[in-house]
């Protein structure tokens, strides 16, 4: 497959051949970039299975939409940026689901949970447990923002830290909680 290409042929030329339907050019890109893109995605989504799904879906979409794709100057940069965006989309989707669950828990009538009292109690206990495991500064900042409703600026002023530090702490808390509560959120959504 890969050996069939002249070493002087650039990736942009191979990309053009793939656009024209040459599957061996597609195979070259898959073999060359699949593993590295999975490692890159893993660093963002913190799940080996999800990172593989994202990269595989990217390559399927790449092949299906090959005729309409435009790569300006760098195939590798295009692939990395595409995976980066897909990972961010995945994380945003998880955040939306989690926000929906939080909203449902906060605004649902207690009798709506009569069918699932153990699940509701277990989820609340697990959330509380994981929040309590957060490092102290991160935990306090997260609670002030998410439960007390303070803005990043208000927290920064109150704790005498920069807004960037607040942003980092909230981001770190969400990353830790997302990873720790992943199984519970999917269970509840099902």
CATH class of the largest domain: Mainly Alpha
CATH fold type of the largest domain: Rna Polymerase Sigma Factor, Chain: A
Radius of gyration in whole Å, from Cα?
Answer: 22 Å
Structural class: mainly alpha
Distance between the amino and carboxyl termini: 43 Å
**Per DSSP, what share of the residues sits in E-state strands of 2 or more residues?**
under 5%
Number of helices: 8
Number-wise, the strands total: 0
Report the major sheet: none
Percent of residues in helices comes to: over 70%
Total tally of structural domains: 2
Q: Summarize the helix and strand pattern as letters.
A: HHHHHHHH
How is this structure best described in words?
This protein is mainly α and 190 residues long. The chain folds into two domains: 2-91, Rna Polymerase Sigma Factor, Chain: A (Orthogonal Bundle), CATH 1.10.1740; 108-189, Arc Repressor Mutant, subunit A (Orthogonal Bundle), CATH 1.10.10. It is built from eight helices and no strands. It has helices at 11-19, 23-45, 48-64, 75-107, 117-133, 136-146, 152-159, 163-189. The radius of gyration is 22 Å and the shape is elongated. It starts with 10 loop residues before the first helix and ends with a helix. Mean pLDDT is 79; it is low at 1-9 and 109-117.
């Amino acid at each position: 497959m890969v050996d069939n290409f002249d070493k002087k042929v650039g990736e942009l030329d191979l990309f053009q051949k793939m656009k024209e339907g040459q599957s061996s050019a597609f195979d070259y890109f898959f073999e060359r970039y699949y593993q590295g893109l999975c490692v890159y995605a893993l660093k963002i989504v913190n799940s080996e299975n999800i990172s593989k799904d994202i990269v595989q879906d990217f390559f399927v979409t790449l092949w299906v939409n090959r005729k309409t794709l435009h790569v300006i100057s760098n195939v590798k940069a295009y692939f990395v940026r595409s995976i980066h965006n897909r990972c961010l989309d995945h994380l945003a989707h998880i955040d939306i689901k989690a926000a929906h669950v939080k909203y449902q828990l906060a605004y649902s009538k207690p009798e709506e949970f009569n069918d699932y009292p153990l699940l509701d109690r277990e989820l609340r206990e697990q959330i509380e447990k994981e929040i309590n495991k957060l490092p102290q500064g991160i935990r306090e900042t997260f609670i002030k923002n998410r439960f007390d409703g303070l803005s990043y600026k208000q927290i920064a002023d109150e704790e005498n830290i920069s807004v960037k530090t607040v942003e980092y702490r909230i981001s770190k808390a969400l990353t830790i909680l997302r990873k720790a509560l992943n199984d519970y959120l999917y269970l509840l959504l099902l």
